[in-house]
Amino acid sequence: MDYLSDERKKSDFDVEAMKVAWAGSIQEFQLSDRMAKLVANDPVFEKFTRPMLGRKELLKNTLRKSAHAWKLIIDLRLSEEEAKWLRLYVDEPAYTDLHWGMFIPAIEGQGTEEQKKKWLPLAKKMQIIGCYAQTELGHGSNVQGLETTATFDTRTDEFIMHSPTLTSSKWWPGGLGKLSTHAVVYARLIVGGQFHGVHGFIVQLRSLEDHSPLPGITVGDIGLKFGNGAYNTMDNGVLRFDHVRIPRNQMLMRVSQVTKEGKIMQSDVPRQLIYGTMVYVRQTIVADASKALSRAVCIATRYSAVRRQFGSRDGGPETQVIDYKTQQSRLFPLLASAYAFRFVSEWLKSLYLDVKQRLEANEFSTLPEAHACTAGLKSLTTTATADGIEECRKLCGGHGYLVSSGLPELFAVYIPACTYEGDNVVLMLQVARFLVKTVSELGHKKPVGTTAYMGRVASLMQKNSAVQTAEGWLNPGAVVEAFESRAARMAVRCAQELAKFGNPEEGFAELAVDLVEVAVSHCQLIVVTKFFEKLQQDIPGKGVKESLEVLCYVYALFLLHKHQGDFLATGYLTPKQASLANAQLRTLYSKVRPNAIALVDSFSYTDHYLGSILGRYDGNVYPKLYEAAWEDPLNDSDVIDGFHQYVQPILKQRLHSAKL
Ligand SMILES: CCCCCCCC/C=C\CCCCCCCC(=O)SCCNC(=O)CCNC(=O)[C@H](O)C(C)(C)COP(=O)(O)OP(=O)(O)OC[C@H]1O[C@@H](n2cnc3c(N)ncnc32)[C@H](O)[C@@H]1OP(=O)(O)O
Ligand SMILES: Cc1cc2nc3c(=O)[nH]c(=O)nc-3n(C[C@H](O)[C@H](O)[C@H](O)COP(=O)(O)OP(=O)(O)OC[C@H]3O[C@@H](n4cnc5c(N)ncnc54)[C@H](O)[C@@H]3O)c2cc1C
């Protein structure tokens, strides 16, 4: 029985067409759908018991799943794209993520042709397993502060990898602890006693025969992390070197080369390319944000339609909690954000592919913008998603706290995204630096791409909003101009404040909080703009574009309402105009309401992937919750182990003293 069928009948758009819009294309939809079903129908990928497993059992279970996934990739001759979808739907962090997601890209981006030829075939056949060993116990954000050394020895034509201090121990790399045979290790290059910057080195860590650590290498797991199951399926590791020697040609040498004689040669590739793998991964993290948020929203939306509380008259049905305006005002902006992040990630991927092509042709002019966009959008979307998942838990009331709701594990697995691949505040400060530079160059350099609006800064500083009515806000020009003006005015005001400092670095440090706010407003502008640009495209299917339009306005006007202080303080909006935007938002929520279930169905998630009783497609929540309780190991017997030893004596003593 489908308890949500009435809800499904209410929608006024073509759900199948929306699934295609969400996926990006019909081909992408079919591919994703095939992989989702393949995983959902395979018992090896069962995951309900995961949060109850002890660490060793948990990791072994992950290894079993990874091996099975690899066998499927080989046996079914899956393409790289199919393998990525397979990985997504298996839904279990594993050492393979870092192997495919960072080790291989690091060699591809920073290795010479010769190095790529040697290492990539081995890695792609998984004859070696690699990880990305950058962060240390003492430094993560400050990459130039890393302490591991790679000292060149001209006599033997080797680098000596060494961990000189406790804080130089590599700490955190995923896949390092127990599985990796190799790592790209970031270390201080020292030649002739001189420091020549941090570089990547391919280092073998374990024997390919018996997997034992090689001489001079100490390696292990760093211990349990937040939550049950969750990211504990990953062997984040610690690594120390005691004068470990590697051949010279294992330094990744696309950026700088060290010759046999100990000469440093700089290619015309900028030094920042050493950070290139992070640009790539940050871009994939934005796409992951839309997946994680849409999952949480799917659970909370379906459950909000099932759950009834208060409002019964004459014994009739109570009100579905999704009909409360407060529930809508918390849920629908998250639903809209999931779509907004999906579309901005699509755009970011195309920006990244363009930059990648240029980099391959040794054209580096667009790298700073790619860095600012990937860093900023990674920060913006992961912060909103982590907060959004927790909000979805609250939207599900008490049952959201049960592991069987799927939300606790989703939250636990997701929140480190705010930290890994760059702490979100540190990344926003990078965006701020880029914006300050853009503003300071306005006189002689025309801003392009995502900062093109800064070129119209004079008019953006003068013109105020012309919106007169709530309907007036349903106008892309009016909304985009509001976000542009706010970002430009905040940036200019900050630049003026900065100019008051004699030392720009001192000013930057002092004004960091304001600078982060400027960066956030710039990134929100990008997301809003890209959503409107998406709507300019041909989007087939009855009512699909109209529904997306509603979501786009919900996203933008929700942000405008949330940050109305900025819009008012910059003088672009009057309080009246801000309240008209809020009135429009209420109307938009009423438009979303009948389509809410169809909008989450359009994600096309299987019950396996959702992993949530509250988010079941059929809405059959209560019987399944009740059933699941009895599957808990505590309910294997009526009298629990430990009762006779620890509880009964207390009870007996009470009885005894009660008699007295
Ligand atoms: C077939 C199956 C496939 C399956 C696929 C599965 C996929 C799954 C994928 C993935 C799973 C994900 C699982 C999680 C993984 C987590 C991994 C990690 O966490 S790895 C560690 C990350 N570590 C950080 O991110 C450190 C953060 N710190 C930094 O990035 C930098 O140090 C930073 C940005 C803070 C800069 O530091 P400064 O201020 O000291 O600057 P200076 O290093 O001197 O560089 C200055 C110049 O370089 C530019 N710059 C900095 N970073 C750049 C970059 N990345 N690209 C380009 N330019 C950059 C700056 O804009 C600046 O430019 P101007 O001089 O102003 O022009
Ligand atoms: C689950 C997980 C997986 C990871 N996987 C890997 C991996 O595979 N490989 C790898 O190399 N690393 C990995 N990391 C490490 C990760 O990349 C770092 O933890 C991350 O870059 C943050 O650095 P940090 O820990 O040094 O934080 P810190 O920089 O010490 O941050 C602590 C606080 O200081 C603030 N702060 C720091 N610098 C500044 C500044 N300049 N201005 C203002 N505030 C500042 C931050 O905002 C934060 O609030 C992983 C981490 C986690 C949690």
UniProtKB/TrEMBL annotation:
Give the Acyl-coenzyme A oxidase N-terminal domain ranges: 14-129
A molecular-function term among this protein's GO annotations: FAD binding
According to UniProt, the name of this protein is: Acyl-coenzyme A oxidase
Domain Acyl-CoA oxidase C-terminal residue range list: 476-652
Instruction: Give the top-rank taxon of the lineage listed in the UniProt record for this protein.
Output: Eukaryota
Residues in the active site? E421 (proton acceptor)
List each copy of the Acyl-CoA oxidase C-alpha1 domain by range.
275-436
Tell me if Lipid metabolism is a UniProt keyword of this record: yes
The similarity annotation says:
Belongs to the acyl-CoA oxidase family.
- Annotated localization: Peroxisome
Family matches, as PANTHER family? ELECTRON TRANSPORT OXIDOREDUCTASE (PTHR10909), PEROXISOMAL ACYL-COENZYME A OXIDASE 1 (PTHR10909:SF250)
